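Exam revision sheet. Question 4 asks you to relate a sequence to its structure. Input first:
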Amino acid sequence: MTIVSTPDLCDVYETEIHQGRVRVLAPVFNNYGAHDSFFGKAVTIKCFEDNSVLKELLESPGAGQVIVMDGGGSLRRAILGDMLAEKAARNGWAGLVVNGCIRDCDEIANIEIGVKALNTHPMKTEKRGIGDLNVSVSFAGQFIKPGDWVYSDNNGILVSELELTL
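Answer key, structure tokens:
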């Protein structure tokens, strides 16, 4: 897997950051997966305390894409656990950015995938079949559209309309 350097990308694409074409998410996320660095095109999910849409999406091949889940910033339930993270890794997803909580963090730390989330919580979600796939989401001070490029490492998360290279 290619290592991402968000500081280097910020240096190279400083003009695009000032123009709003490259956006830096607020530093509110923690690393949980075995991969600290990951990138790919965004597939977005908007859900609240229900991971039904994620579970269904993970049945499909990820092709190196990044799942961006807007869980409304909920700190009351975990919308990702080890079984779904394992399925994501098996099906070729590069990583997940979760605006909410995860659980099974010790197990997820050993799964070959990138995971960023706000925090952990032991409670699972309720399965009500509620959520939206491939809609624009907004959290951590920025918006993310389906098909945007997501770059993540220990320094932070960038979102771009165009693919970035060093």
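Marking note for examiners. The longest strand covers residues 66-78.
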